[in-house]
Amino acid sequence: MAAARNDGWMVKIGLEIHCQLTGLKSKLFCQCSSDYRGMEPNANTCPVCAGLPGTLPLLNEKAVELAGMISLAFGCKIPDRIMFYRKNYFYPDLPKDFQITQYNAYGVSSIGAEGKLEYIPGAGSGADTGGKTARIRRVQLEEDPGRLVYETGSMESSPFALIDYNRAGMPLVEIVTEPDFIDPRDVRIFLNKITSIVEHLGACDTSLEGSVRCDANVSVRGGNRVEIKNVSSFKEVEKALTYEIARQKAKSDREIQVRSETRHWDDARKVTKESRTKEEEQDYRYFPEPDIPSIALGQEFLSAIQSLTPELPDDRKARFVSSYGLSPHVAQVLIDNKQLADFFESCAKINRSPKEIANLIVTDLMGLVGDDKKDSGAIFAGLKIRPAHIAELAGLVDRGVINRNTAKQILGQIVKTGEMPSEVANKTGASMIQDADSLSKAVQEVFRSEQAAVQDAKKNPNASNFLLGKVMQLTKGRASPKAALELINKKLKEEQARPD
Amino acid sequence: MGDLYRLTASQITSGVRNRDFSAEEYICEILDRIEKVEPKVNAFVTVNKEQALNQARILDRWIRDGGNVGPLAGVAVSIKDNICTKGIRTTCGSNMLREYVPPYDATVVTKLQNSGAIIVGKTNLDEFAMGSTTEFSAYGPTRNPWDISRVPGGSSGGSAASVAAQECAVSLGSDTGGSVRCPASFCSIVGIKPTYGLVSRYGLVSYANSLEQISPMGRTVSDAALVLDLISGPDEKDHTTTATPAIRTTGGDIGTGADADKRGLRVGLIKELTAGADAEVSRIVYGAFDLLSSHDCSCTEVSLNAVDYALASYYTIATAEASSNLARYDNLRYGFDMDPEGYEWNTYFAKARSNFGPEAKRRIIVGSYVLSSGYYGKYYLKAQKVRALLKQELKSLYKDYDVLIAPTMPILPFKIGERVEDPLKMYLADVDTVIANLAGIPAMSVPAGFSAGFGVGVQIMADEFKEQTMLQAAQIVESGAGVNRSPDL
Amino acid sequence: MVTKEQVKHLGWLSRLELSDQELDRYTAQIEEIIRYLDKLDSIPLEDIEPIYITKKFTDLRKDKAELFSSNPLGTKYRKNGFVKGPRMA
Ligand SMILES: [Mg+2]
Ligand SMILES: [Zn+2]
Known about the structure:
Chain B has 489 residues and is α/β, with parallel strands linked by helices. Chain B contains 17 helices and 11 strands.
């Protein structure tokens, strides 16, 4: 995808990622539940989050801790004290008609600032030589607004909106990067890394719909910056950015100036569309939130969050390589999604064939996961797969009962039925043919029908692979490749010994 | 009987407790008094008649059965209508909240009720407490009980008038830039603005969060002090309260055990403020100064340089905070009857919000102006720095002085309507009071004399959490000024 | 100088519907008020830092969930539990 390279186009992409702190019990400023999903509309509200007159925000201590842990994981500096600001704008889903957030224009007030995060770009992105780094501008804590729904399903055709404030006041961590990305594919990889980190921290259950949202801004050739909002998944972020870069380049080619604006991603038509903006940045009238004192953090806070921080993805990857003997690439794929990494470790606990398990997961099982689920915490949703399955399957392969090809076929079946691999193998007779009688029958058969190849192989040992392939074909892949090859070579030697 | 309504809070509680009269008798008299004087004064937005009578009866039964009673048992209190009362509508003097009934009680309301007080009604105020006259209310102006053609001061004018007109014993107001001390002075009663963080603001509808405190008012220093004692202390529902022990005024009896200190009080009179006041006002302030002197206080005239900038600082911060606080009144979640269906949302918001009165609109716009991008450093930040400077200057004065005194208001109560269309002139009258709000220190107004039939209050300010010292000085002024008259109504 | 255009824009940011007369009147009054606030320019403040109240992070609210006992939303304009809002487009 040459379009995305920095071939003089100076593509600049920056990200604004919102993660809900679903790992908390209560909202950011009140005691309402953070587990609002599935509740009756407006059942999860109180005077504080409904913005009633006279109420005051009460900052959640644990939210500050989790946001601090996230900041540390992103290599951010944590200031000695943090403050909250009001961002003033009107919107029907915003109970106080301002958002309590953090703001650094008048001095650093956010929980994290000036961090950086390394990520490994995917193969073929033109940077196979190692990691790339994106700088993190800031990490801030803020409240989520409520939610608007439309009876007709669309905003345009509804004569009124329906408002649900259950989400209002949910704690969000906003992560803002510098415009350090040039390739939309890197963005997707980076986003996966971020979700893996917040999952590992127990801060955010990314399998919950809408728990991670990403807005992006993009410019080409130093032109105006365009914000892209309303993107539903990381895959769509990649698509939206690719589309938007092409759009801006086309404009630039015709020497039309790109307008500085906010555009919405139209999921159905796969285009970005102009959208009427709310307030412009300069109209937010930020000022320090007078109801929340500045919060002193200092060394005590740092020590507290350091001791609370569990193993993070990068350390886990190193451990996967050193203790399980996995390749860095396989380990990377596993830790990019915490569910996947956890799944792997559960399997590895049952059966000590970590390499085979990792292979089965990374190559075979992932092949069965829908593209839309690959980035999500609900990676195995809809698949009837448990660690015991993969553990047993890996054992069968390791002991030579089935070959890898058969294992793949069996996996394809059990994710639908939930049966154990050994049951399937027995039922279908899928076990490998290892007994000498059946194998030599098959080899003899091939030697009869492939005379020319046999002659060839007598002179060129590499050609025996062709004969093996034929044996596999004949046995529908059930022959033990190792045993079959031994037989073939033995027979070739016999033939060589015989004069032509 | 027939004049129970004149009693002070401590007299009522002891009367009810000793069964000299019943709470019901007393509350009935109060309600009669309200009915009689309200047409002239208009101190109340809502009179809480049924509930008040009910509570009085319950209390009487409780006492008959030998139950223990709290320190405000049976006392009729009024509450400024920007302090939330569960089940009693809370209008903030605004059309925006004409029908608003809070589903929760302010912390101070819970505390008062737990000490046996009976809420007789919600008092009038300038819309959302923005004003110094109680003329900017959607429920009509409150009138000064001493002369009903004049303003009672504001914004807690309804609370002050209800206390002065003996429609209740004590009241809760709120003081953001003088909103309790100003009407206390104009209505010749006592009003105490506590140290910022001493009293919970949970349930106080915000006008300017970083400046305001709920503030007690009474006809005597000891009544106001008694209420202060009961409502103060840290509250887990308000992060801005401070974990400092509540001010013990020992049941309102400030003098007890503190007589020795009283002799030695070091009093400073702030020259700049006294010089800027009307001659009559300054005469009375100097009178109080002499009185303190004659009570063995050492009295000195002192300078406070930052006063020149205090008012500009105050109006910058107050309007900035207000413009944001008043945003939530978009009429979607609560408010008055206006169906949103069919309206485009911006139109609905603008239309609903056009129900704000003129002063609220002005302050919203001024506040938006000073917070505008590019102006933050010019106004808001400088205002905060002036605040810090003022605090510094006061801190160093309080090394040498226990209390500072000044006029509460530089002027006498003026005619209703006189300043309505001249907002700046009205703001300028707050010059003496805003200092305490900016610095977060306690300040109170205590009646110190009369001029042309109007009470004039002297303002006493102390260092943070030195309410006790401030109250001692106030009692000296109160005892010497001989101002315990009541208006003819 | 505070202009009528400025006041109009600030009015829009605050979602206040202002009539032409209101605009004229407020512009004049706000000009006068802002000129008064300009007093802040005449005091040297370079060396002064604003003071903000500070709390320790351990004094914050503990993460406990508790449902509010009644419905905090007073509006009668509701549908299936939702609050009815105006049209968004
Ligand atoms: Mg945000
Ligand atoms: Zn809530």
